[in-house]
Design goal:
164 residues, mainly alpha, two-stranded antiparallel sheet, 6 helices, 2 strands, 6% strand, elongated
């Protein structure tokens, strides 16, 4: 083959090659080379029509059933789903309201922070309030007596719960 001349495959070979590569994703480098080759190129009206037809439907994803579309629309409107309320919900616990931390007040946390000021176990102090935890010493989440609540750092709090 002469240098600088393009080699053209016969139509049969091109069809085989096209079938073998169909659906295979192109690398970013390959896409960039294609883009660079097409910069400044003008297309005929016929070619533009073919490109438009080929691009139609691209990027639309899978087809959704009307029921699925209705469920999505209901979820986006913030309406409760009737199939997920009450006894049908997997988190249903017999209609009992949660009692975890019942009676807890932010003022209790602030009182413990001002009393202890540092971690009861290691003495660490962090200025960020979220990094200091209040812990029920007897592990009873309803006992909010100040003598029962201590200030711990995150590490010591995890250690207390993992040992219990």
């Amino acid at each position: 083959m002469a240098k600088g001349r393009a080699f053209h495959h016969d139509p049969e070979y091109r069809a085989k090659l096209s079938a073998a590569l169909k659906g295979r994703p192109k690398t970013a480098e390959h896409r960039e080379k294609i883009r660079a080759a097409l910069v400044g190129r003008t297309f005929s009206d016929e070619t533009r029509a073919r490109m438009k037809a080929a691009a139609k439907g691209r990027g639309k994803g899978r087809k959704l059933s009307p029921q699925h579309r209705a469920n999505i629309a209901a979820g986006k409107r913030g309406q409760p789903r009737p199939d997920m309320t009450g006894e049908l919900n997997t988190k249903w616990d017999g209609g009992v309201a949660p009692t975890r931390f019942a009676g807890w007040r932010k003022s209790i946390r602030l009182a413990v922070i001002s009393r202890d000021q540092v971690c009861r176990d290691c003495g660490k102090w962090d200025a960020r309030p979220r990094c200091m935890h209040v812990h029920h010493a007897d592990f009873d989440e309803t006992n909010h007596d100040l003598v029962n609540i201590v200030l711990l750092c995150v590490t010591c709090h995890r250690a207390r719960h993992s040992s219990n």
